[in-house]
Model the fold of this input.
Amino acid sequence: MHYKKKKLFIEKVNSLKIVRKFGTPTYCYSLNKLKKNILDFQKNFKSLSPLVCFSVKSNCNLKILKEIKKCGVGADVVSKGEMIQALKAGILPKKIVFSGVGKKTEELKFAIKKKILLINAESESEVFEIERLAKLKKNPVNIGLRLNPNIDANTLKKISTGKHEDKFGLTEKTFLNILNKFKNSKFINIKCLSVHIGSQITDFKPYLKMINVLDKIIKKSKHTFDYVDLGGGIGIQYERKTKSFNYKRYNSAIKNFLGKHNVKIIFEPGRSIIANCAVLFSQIIYIKNTNKKRFVILDAAMNDLMRPALYGAYHRIIPLLKTNKKNDQMHDFVGPVCETTDKFLSVAGFQNLKEKEFVAISDVGAYGMSLSSNYNLRPKPLEIMVDNKSLKVILKRQKLLNII
Ligand code: LLP
Done:
């Protein structure tokens, strides 16, 4: 994404052409950025030869999953729907891991039938349920146990997952109990120790703590694991002031860990692969000035991009056409939905905008479209992919007729 003669380009395509042709709100992805991110991720952890499983919840577009699959990446899924979508994209079952605290019997049955690599269980009841289903099938099932390491990931409070007050994973005591209970089971093979401490983590230190906890519990358990699934969570720079993640330090801590434990590492990245590959184009419907601020009312809303309303998350907004005129007022970029939290950004001063102009909301590739809804009976937006000079619709705009 860059400006050429003041016009915003996505790869080699002028974004103004996209919005004029396809309308707004529209998610627009860069294929080459996606490929680069995957390559960078693989390079950063090359010495570990890990299995990388893309976290489908961050983006479940079929075309995107197909591209990810082409790069040799597997899938981390959390529902039957995501499993079907990953399989449809051609991802092999032996590269699929299944996480989640509330997997229903039907979902477990499907995972067992498809012989996916691992079901990462998060409660004792779930392990019993998997054993029951495995017995019915008369075939053992490979599972992972997700540990809750009680670590603060220093991230947005609402997306932390690795502390005892969070619903995820097993306490150390239950973890060790389950290992003990199932060690002679003919139907349950506990192959993996899995963990995921949160999302948008930009500091490597919580990961070092996490590895330390894993090291200790493996030693304590005396169990031989084939895999250690470290989850996802690596953050990106939504704001320029955010420090970029120190991959080197994380990589060397894992390398050190592998010196003590002979296991295969699994990663489940979502955001770090897809977040900065996309923008959400939107048109300004009206501008409303009040004594206090200037409301820029967009045609995109919280149903299209939920993160700011849900977590107070920050997404930079930029114009499609740059000008030199500035307006120093306080700007609130809001959507048309009838909720006060339907606001994308408050910013002091912006270039002087006019009604009908277009803007792009940045870094929306992860948990953007996948979290969208039909709230206020608004159809979901269109998704487009740019590859160099070419453009492809990768998901059609939802029709009102289909939701009414
Ligand atoms: N593995 C597990 C078990 C997870 O729960 C998650 C994300 C991931 C992997 C991928 O994490 P990532 O690499 O994308 O950080 N909707 C929130 C984020 C929720 C993350 C949920 N779990 C947001 O928009 O910030």
The first helix runs from residue 15 to 22. Residues 28 and 260 are 44 Å apart (CA to CA). The chain has a mean pLDDT of 96. The two ends are 36 Å apart (CA to CA).
